[in-house]
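Translate structure to sequence.
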């Protein structure tokens, strides 16, 4: 694997996709059970044995969502007013958290459009029929607003 300009190893799209699924599963379980997110992630990694790049990126995503959760939830609340975050389906809430982190706080790693598309795909895979529309709409609005990060 080659290193990027910032010295990090490049994570291939397939590894990123696997990492997003692991990160989503971690955030979802931590949200509904109140288990510590990194403990959940480490258990899932032990169970599924992803390659190291996917594991590392999943951990980066989980740590980022945990670190920025207050700001992320504020962004979601701002653009999903009809869906209070505590009343939103847990799948949607955690896909949005992951999508906002990746699109806004981690956009140096991947393009914003890719982050949105990948979040929509997670919503299609794990959410309801309406989830992907909600995720797409909220993330597109979040992405077009200026941010102070």
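Result:
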């Amino acid at each position: 694997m080659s290193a990027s300009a910032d010295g990090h190893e490049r994570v291939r799209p397939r590894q990123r996709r696997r990492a997003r699924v692991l990160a989503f599963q971690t955030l979802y379980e931590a949200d509904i059970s109140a288990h510590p997110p990194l403990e959940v992630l480490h258990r899932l990694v032990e169970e599924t044995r992803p390659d190291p790049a996917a594991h590392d990126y999943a951990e980066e995503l989980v740590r980022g969502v945990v670190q920025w959760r207050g700001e992320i939830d504020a962004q979601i609340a701002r653009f999903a007013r009809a869906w209070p975050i505590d009343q939103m389906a847990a799948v949607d809430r955690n896909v949005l958290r992951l999508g906002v982190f990746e699109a806004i706080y981690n956009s140096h790693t991947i393009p914003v459009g890719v982050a949105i598309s990948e979040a929509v795909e997670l919503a299609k895979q794990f959410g309801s029929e309406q989830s992907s529309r909600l995720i797409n709409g909220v993330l597109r609005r979040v992405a077009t607003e200026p941010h102070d990060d």
